[in-house]
Specification:
It is globular, with a radius of gyration of 14 Å. It has a four-stranded antiparallel beta sheet with strand order 2-3-1-4. The chain has three helices and four strands; from the N terminus they run βαββααβ. By secondary structure, it is an alpha+beta fold.
Amino acid sequence: MIHVLATVTLQAGRRAEFLGHFHRLMPLVHAEHGCLEYGPAVDLQTGLTAQIPLRDDVVVIVEKWENLDALKAHLVAPHMHDYRAQVRELVVATQLQVLEPA
């Protein structure tokens, strides 16, 4: 199993619009072979001193895949190409972390 954290920085004030597109994509990704978990998360105000400052224009996609081949297939799936075209003007940058259990 592998874990993926995709941190998506968005144009200011466009997070709700991005999440609308993302939630429509989710059932297609959940149906992909090897998808164990795939969903968005946003910063939560906690008052914890170690927490980084809240980011109003960031969404973190939390993913789990059976293996690297499943992730690679996901990245080139036709619905992912369509989704990227839909959100292109909303996204400033994306950082990808691919992790393995330790």
